[in-house]
Hints:
Helix content is about 0%, strand content about 55%. The chain has strands spanning about 1-5, 10, 15-25, 30-40, 45-50, 55-60, 65-70, 75-80, 90-100, 100-105, 110-115.
Amino acid sequence: VKLVESGGRLVQPGGSLRLSCTASGLTFSSWTMRWFRQAPGKERELVAGINGAGDTTNYADSVKGRFTISRDNAENTVYLQMNSLEPEDTAVYYCNALRFGVERWGQGTQVTVSS
């Protein structure tokens, strides 16, 4: 199983980014997909999750109304659309696949929100 994130970069406060995570080596639609983030000196935290069918999502309170998780099972890809970015959103963002307690992680992509 391999998860590859992309889309992280430096963005100004108030800006937008879309992160992508493409999976291989698994039956993608059978896995819950999640985005986590880890800021310097802080624990890794769950940002958003989406079930295999793509019809159920959940979000951390800190990103509700600003971030949207979605998936394209035909492309084996999960997305995180991030709007109204704040400096507090600066972190390494990780893609996570979860199925029956088994987890797989991507290598992470850096998002920096700064003027």
